C-alpha cells in the first residue's frame, strides 16, 4: 500500500473555508473510492492553521485515480488559494490498523 502525508500551513483566517472543502473530500474519498483506505484530517493543537492529511491508497494508481474525482477537484478549487505552504511525504505502508 501507498501513503501520503500532506503538511499544510494555511493563510491566516482561512481554517473554516479549508475544513468546509476538505472534510467532504476526505469523507467521499473513503466512501466512494475502493482504492482509498484512509483519509484522515489532523489539526495541530498548538497551531490551528497547521494541518496534516494522512491518506492511504492501495497503490500509486489509486492515488492518481483520486486526483481525477469530482470531490478532489472541487476541494482543490477552494483550498489552493488558502494554502501558505505545503509539503508532501510519500511512504510505503508496512502495517495498518486491521479495523480499517
Automatic annotation (TrEMBL):
<dbReference type="GO" id="GO:0005829">
    <property type="term" value="C:cytosol"/>
</dbReference>
<dbReference type="InterPro" id="IPR007138">
    <property type="entry name" value="ABM_dom"/>
</dbReference>
<protein>
    <submittedName>
        <fullName>Antibiotic biosynthesis monooxygenase</fullName>
    </submittedName>
</protein>
<dbReference type="GO" id="GO:0004497">
    <property type="term" value="F:monooxygenase activity"/>
</dbReference>
<feature type="domain" description="ABM">
    <location>
        <begin position="2"/>
        <end position="94"/>
    </location>
</feature>
<dbReference type="Pfam" id="PF03992">
    <property type="entry name" value="ABM"/>
</dbReference>
<dbReference type="InterPro" id="IPR011008">
    <property type="entry name" value="Dimeric_a/b-barrel"/>
</dbReference>
<keyword id="KW-0560">Oxidoreductase</keyword>
<keyword id="KW-0503">Monooxygenase</keyword>
<dbReference type="InterPro" id="IPR050744">
    <property type="entry name" value="AI-2_Isomerase_LsrG"/>
</dbReference>
